[in-house]
Amino acid sequence: MKPPLPRKLHFASSDKIIELVQRGGGITDQESRLMLNQAIATGRGGIFLNLSVEQYEKLKILPADL
Questions:
Q1: Which of 24, 26, 35, 51 suits 15 as a labelling partner, its CA being 20 to 30 A distant?
Q2: Whose CA is closest to 23, among 4, 50, 46, 41?
């Protein structure tokens, strides 16, 4: 199941995006890193989060203006 998140996140720094992807284990090889860099450069892209039911429920109740 891949439901959309209740909000979209906007980052002012590409470093924060890279950190988020690294922490989530999304950079698995050189190709994934190059694809991430290309998405950042063009200002497009998205991510899928592998969350437990508990994590997803917590995310849904967070305030939208973090």
A1: 51
A2: 50
36 phi-psi bin (left φ>0, alpha ψ -120 to 50, beta other): alpha
CA 34 from centroid of its chain's CA atoms:
16
Classify each residue of 34-53 as buried b or exposed e, where b means 16 or more C-beta atoms within 10 Å of its C-beta: eebeebbeeeeeeeeeeeee
Tokens representing 49 are 């989060």
pTM: 0.62
Question: Do you know the residue count of the chain?
Answer: 66
Average pLDDT over residues 44-60: 80
Q: Measure the CA–CA gap between 27 and 40, rounded to whole angstroms.
A: 14
